[in-house]
Amino acid sequence: MAKTLQDYKSSVKPIWCAKCGHYGVLNSLYRAFVELDIDPANAVTVSGIGCSSRLPYFVNAYGFHGVHGRALPTAMGVKVANPELTVVATGGDGDGLAIGIGHFPHACRRNVDITYIMMDNFIYGLTKGQASPTTHTGHAAKASPQGPSETPIDPATLAITFGATYVARCFSGQPAQTAAILKEAIAHKGFSFIHVLGPCATFYDTLQICREGTAQLEEGYDDTNKQSAAATATSINPIYLGVLYKSDQPVHVQGQPTSSLPERAERMQRLDKVFANYV
Ligand code: SF4
Ligand code: MG
Questions:
Q1: Over the chain, what is the mean pLDDT?
Q2: Which CATH number, 1.10.443.10, 3.40.50.970, 3.40.50.300, 3.40.1620.10, labels domain 5-249?
Q3: What's the average model confidence in pLDDT over 241-259?
């Protein structure tokens, strides 16, 4: 029987603030799962820490809410252990580009077949409005009343440069495009990175920037040219939305589990014995 959005909604209701941009991403992810007919028993969402990192609670699938900035190594480990799973890592700009940024280049260049959704609201929301690595220069935030003096990081440019094989940008207020991109990204064989812009309605309402400062990639845009894709991703006037870059490259650990189930069970027993010495 065809699945519906309800098949992917967990019994936990999102507790994000009203008008938070993360709702749009969650609903788009449900839609992408429906269209790809993904079995919830074969899907895993993995996150770090932050408002957006609550997402695994709201998805009827396996979930792992880990520690700050560490979603990517966990997600890659899940996929390598069981390549049959659909693995989606999620998190925010603070989680992915501050404490977690050391993992980002290596995930991009390793090309494990997972999808990483960065829900970028240009601020730390969970900790109540400090400047993040994507906060616009000069935007007054609680812990930086003059605004940050640093130039914001653009994660899509980094992802292309670091070797990600699918890089796209969208806006959570445009759910049809976001769902279509998520669907294509999850279906893509290799590491796919989705940069989703959206407002933190409570601490940095960038709705106007997301609406008026963005533009769709032009008709005929070449999403296979890495150099021009990186240049396009870097543009801030306008900020381009759409599939910026895609490439067909060998996928890391494709097809076969690294070990058999009995081997894994034996390894777990050995680990249990090791940990027993510490409790
Ligand atoms: Fe969303 Fe901001 Fe509220 Fe967090 S604080 S739930 S990011 S609106
Ligand atoms: Mg944020």
A1: 94
A2: 3.40.50.970
A3: 80
